[in-house]
Design goal:
The chain is an alpha+beta fold. The chain has one helix at residues 35-55; strands at 8-12, 17-21, 29-32. It has one helix and three strands; from the N terminus they run E-E-E-H.
Length: 70
């Protein structure tokens, strides 16, 4: 499955790691020591988020691509 959700990636000085947020999937976040590791971890967490939502009978949002913020 191709991951098409928007990822927000930033460096957290406090955690000394890259943090990835997936705004379209509430509570979906990951981190990693490198940018690449953080993105790979986010892909795994996205799959787990979707699997869990389906098991619980919750809707899974369709990826919208780039989100616009006011």
């Amino acid at each position: 499955m191709s991951i098409k959700y928007e990822l927000i990636i930033y460096w957290s000085k406090e955690d000394e790691s890259f943090v990835v947020e997936v705004p379209e999937l509430p509570g979906c976040m990951a981190d990693g020591e490198t940018y690449e590791e953080a993105v790979a971890n986010a892909q795994a967490v996205i799959m787990e988020w979707i699997e869990t939502a389906r098991e619980l009978g919750c809707p899974v949002p369709e990826p919208k691509g780039r989100l616009m913020y006011a």
